[in-house]
Amino acid sequence: MIEQYDISLAKPADAGTIAVMSRDYVEYGLEWQWKPARIAKKIRANDTNVAVARLGKAIVACAIMRYAEIEAHLELLAVQPNYRKRGIGRHLVAWLTETADVAGIQVIYVETRIGNAGARSFYARLGYKDIEIVPRYYCGRESAVRLAYDMHRNR
Ligand SMILES: CC(C)(COP(=O)(O)OP(=O)(O)OC[C@H]1O[C@@H](n2cnc3c(N)ncnc32)[C@H](O)[C@@H]1OP(=O)(O)O)[C@@H](O)C(=O)NCCC(=O)NCCS
What is residue 154's predicted lDDT score, i.e. its pLDDT? Predict the structure, then answer.
């Protein structure tokens, strides 16, 4: 049975947990970029939504999306290992995508580590398309795949 979780905007007190999730599940083996202070700044920023999925008091997933005029950027996404493959990642991205749609966004970009086959499959299932490889995107060391989600095509 899937327990009931709620998706909402993150609170300032969530910054530490989100930062640790990024360090452990996204940035492992690289220099830690998404530290608590940077996440806290994102939570306060007007052009960004930091969203979390909570099960009781625990954060089981988090995501950050920054909005520009017609483009948005999914800057971070992580689901706690024990809660993966239950649709939570899809739901969290859909929640942020709805906001992007209301804001008139036409395309959402995301980068993922080139070796992160799981994330690449996940984004492909959601309708994201590979558009380019960005060499040494992560700390000048690891390349990224940049993917794009066309809001019109997927409407
Ligand atoms: C990638 C990640 C966010 C996916 O979250 P999730 O909650 O497990 O994904 P969902 O359960 O919503 O899956 C949605 C779809 O993607 C597929 N999918 C998810 N993870 C997958 C994987 N590792 N390999 C293949 N397919 C995968 C699911 O099977 C599902 O497909 P369906 O349409 O056939 O049902 C999660 O594995 C994670 O946090 N990984 C570590 C951090 C990371 O890589 N972040 C993203 C890069 S920045």
Answer: 81
Domains in the chain, start-ordered, CATH in brackets?
A: 6-150 (3.40.630.30)
DSSP letters spanning 88-137: HHHHHHHHHHHHHHHTT--EEEEEEETT-HHHHHHHHHTT-EEEEEEEEE
At 152 the pLDDT is 87
Ligand 1: centre distance to CA 42 (Å)? 24
Q: What is the largest CA-CA distance in the chain?
A: 43
Q: How far is the centre of ligand 1, averaged over its atoms, from the C-alpha of 89 (Å)?
A: 6
- Per the listing, tokens 């997927």 go with 154
Task: Read off the pLDDT band of 9 (50, 70, 90).
Answer: very high
How sure is the predictor about 77, in pLDDT bands with cuts at 50, 70 and 90? very high
**Which residues does ligand 1 sit against, CB inside 6 Å?**
25-26, 77-79, 84-90, 112, 116, 118-119, 121-122, 125
What is the Å distance from ligand 1's center to 27 Cα?
16
